[in-house]
Amino acid sequence: MKLSYQEILEHAETAANYQDWGMLSQDLQQLLSDEEFDQSERAIVLLNLAMQVLKSGSFQERWEIAKLFPNFGIDPIAPLIELLNDEDAEPEAQWFAVRILGNFNHPRVIEALIELLKTSQSNDLNSMAVSVLASMGKPAISMLETLLVQDSTRLLATQALGQIRRSETVPLLMQVIHDPDVQIRAIAIEALSSFHSAEITNVLIEALQDLAVRVRFAAVAGLGSRQEQTNLVAYLRPLLLDLNLEVCRQSALALGRLGTSQASTALYDALRSPHTPESLAIELVRALGWIGLPEALNNLEAALLQLPLSESVQLEIIQTLGRVEAIILKFQATEILLSVLPLLQSVATRQAIALSLGQLGNVEAMNSLVALLADSDEGVRFHAISALKTLNTELAHQHLEQLAKIEPEESELGRGIAIALREWSF
Known about the structure:
Helix 6 packs parallel to helix 8 (about 125-135), helix 10 runs parallel beside helix 12 (about 180-190) and helix 18 (about 280-290) runs parallel beside helix 20. By secondary structure, the protein is mainly α. The radius of gyration is 33 Å and the shape is elongated. The chain has a domain at about 335-425: Leucine-rich Repeat Variant (Alpha Horseshoe). It contains 25 helices and no strands. The protein has helices at about 5-15, 20-30, 40-55, 60-65, 75-85, 90-100, 105-120, 125-135, 140-150, 155-165, 170-175, 180-190, 200-205, 215-225, 235, 245-260, 260-270, 280-290, 295-305, 310-320, 325-340, 345-360, 365-370, 380-405, 410-425. The termini are far apart.
């Protein structure tokens, strides 16, 4: 038999008296879905019961009850703010109160959260308040400005402004780009990078000289997103030699995104340096591949033929050449790989070249891939078979069948062709 609204309410009040918060939460869910809920006096009773669960329940019980608060309209704002101001309240309950207040884009909520940031010493509570304020967007911006003038709250205000990502935040963020606090400067530079103007670009260029690694990193990343500006290479090139390796890597990425001939030259010059560590060399190679210009591929070819690179860097170049997408570049990449194939003697590089030639899909590589079937290394031979299948399965199979008729079975190539034909259906 279905219980009446009043019976469920009485059951809920009994659960509250016994501090059975789980049962109370279940009762409240039923009561809030009942059509009688919209009576104001009953809504107040249910809100008071929900607040009891929030104040005293377990984490899971608080999590579940928090979902019900939007049903009460704006009525929960006052008791939730009161909970925030209660010095004796459990920090977890206050954390949930802040989280719930995020459902109400209301001036009183913004004021309460601003005041909380001024007084709270809890990192968890402040972090949640910052996230909630950021989610409120434009209405919170003017009030966050008041926090920028106080040393104790400037970082929290900058964090919130940095998350809002609206043009109205730009003047405020510009106020803290020279702040003594490294974290504040970095957050401001990173947030400003989302907006494109000559003034902000100049700010990012200036930040490249910052003594703090985090600030330089944010500035480099921001400039790398400005592909429409081709005059940034001169500013980013010195950062390839930064004392911090992560900044160097980010600079390589930024230059790759700019995608110009000048960027390609800068990356290759850094690759040529005998002082460039292997991990950075790999990033430089990838960046050259992203540029997508014939000059960049020429630089990769020159690196393979002229520089004393480690095998890992050579493999990265070969794999990068195999990933080019533009048709005209596929032909160029194929020619480069075919020209270096006789010159690179390690098993790993021959295997990598075979796979890259297959990925490029240029049938001009077929004869060279077939020749690899006579390689002394079994792994190279199987990589060549895989590449032939990728290149053009039907044409390659026909070509192998024709060669099998004229190539002596006892030759290395003949044995390789026979193995390829046996493997073809797998």
